[in-house]
Amino acid sequence: MANVYEQPDSTLIHDTALEMTFSSLGIWRKIYLGLNWVLTGLVAVFLIVQGASGAAENLPILYFVGVAVFAIGYCYWLHYAIVNRNLTQLLIIGIINIIPFFNPVSAILVFAIRSTSKKEIGA
User: Fold this and answer.
1) In the Cβ-directed half-sphere of 103, how many Cα atoms lie within 13 Å?
2) Residue ranges making up the domain that contains 91
3) Which one, 18, 23, 58, 86, has the greatest CB density within 10 A?
4) Its pTM surpasses 0.70
5) Residues 26, 116: contact at Cβ < 8 Å?
6) Cβ atoms within 10 A of the Cβ of 70, count?
7) How many distinct structural domains can be found in the chain?
8) pLDDT at position 34, please?
9) Is residue 17 part of a domain?
């Protein structure tokens, strides 16, 4: 028979590391990532269709595909940084949203996500 006065094996007692997955994100960060992917996908499809239809006769389709690939790559980078709670990458993405993209609303959202991630890692 086990010792009655033995400390129980509980996950509350052990200091477990934060599991950094999409499932462990809060609902608002999941919604933000979902909206980013949906809107990026729509923009990419629109760009490729416009390029294929010859709407801009002076530009080859490669320009449209290049912008679509860049947008998808940026969205993937943002997704990776948010899910892995990488504070340095989130800071860089926030600065990029301000300086070359001139998108202060997105920068504020990224900085808020960074703050939440910093609190999660510190807790």
Assistant:
1) 12
2) 26-122
3) 86
4) yes
5) yes
6) 11
7) 1
8) 96
9) no
